[in-house]
Design goal:
The protein is of the alpha/beta class. It has a single domain, classed as Rossmann fold (3-Layer(aba) Sandwich). It contains 7 helices and 7 strands; from the N terminus they run H-H-H-E-H-E-E-H-E-H-E-H-E-E. It has a 7-stranded mixed sheet with strand order 3-2-1-4-5-7-6, with helices on both faces. The termini are far apart. About 40% of the residues are buried. It binds S-adenosylmethionine. S-adenosylmethionine (SAM) binds next to helix 4.
Length: about 210
């Protein structure tokens, strides 16, 4: 848990306030996208675990008016102009997929160009359990991405490092032409979080586990 006093000296927290981003995490996506080029103008982007909305704001800035950002979270999320918000539990994969497909269909799309996931479980304080919950969320994000990405689509998902990390990395590697793990400068020092990047989704591997 980050204390309010610690945030005061945090340059990303300050910059987020100044620039109107809803979270300091916005800078993590900006840094990841600068390094890996996952999101382009005109893309359809699915943001999983989107609340309060920092990543969605960044994604919208990147896709522009010709693109679409669809943001999914368990928690209610305050509206952001031109972004579609869906309240859903992503671990209920089939239900969430059906709801996402209905929105895409309404907007004239079938598949998406990029899936970005900053999903985090509510921390219990028990490291092993939190790592397990994080891996469950990341795996659901990968399953949803595998059902919805276009050929050559891109993916990034947060996962806590620990016992389940290698297995998750391997599952991403099995579906994408290029895979990397990255910790952006905006991640807090000592944080267990890692971002696994998959570029170039292979539709031939859509159903492969
Ligand atoms: C670290 S926050 C995301 C911050 C966001 N990227 C931003 O920049 O504002 C993680 C989010 O994951 C969401 N989450 C956790 N479990 C979820 C689930 N099963 N389904 C959907 N969202 C979930 C939480 O509600 C929380 O809003």
């Amino acid at each position: 848990m980050v204390k309010r006093a610690d945030l005061k000296g945090d340059r990303f927290y300050k910059s987020a306030k100044e620039l109107g981003y809803r979270s300091r995490s916005a800078f993590k996506l900006l840094q990841i996208n600068t390094k890996f080029g996952l999101i382009r103008a005109g893309d359809v982007v699915l943001d999983l675990g989107a609340a309060p909305g920092g990543w969605s704001q960044v994604a919208y800035g990147l896709v522009g008016d010709s693109g679409l950002v669809l943001s999914v979270d368990l928690q209610p999320m305050e509206n952001i102009a031109d972004i579609v918000i869906l309240k859903s539990d992503i671990t209920k994969e089939q239900e969430t997929l059906a709801a996402i497909k209905a929105v895409l269909n309404r907007k004239g799309h079938e598949l998406v160009d990029a899936v970005i996931s900053d999903l985090s479980p509510q921390l219990s304080g028990t490291k092993d359990y939190d790592q397990f919950r994080s891996s469950e969320l990341s795996t659901s994000a990968l399953n949803i991405a595998s059902a919805l990405l276009k050929n050559n689509g891109n993916f990034v998902a947060k996962i806590f490092q620990g016992a389940y990390y290698n297995e998750f990395y391997k599952s991403v590697k099995a579906k994408f032409r290029y895979t990397r793990a990255h910790s952006p400068a905006a991640s807090r020092k000592g944080s267990a979080e890692m971002y696994v990047i998959g570029k170039g989704f292979s539709v031939r591997k859509r159903k492969k586990g």
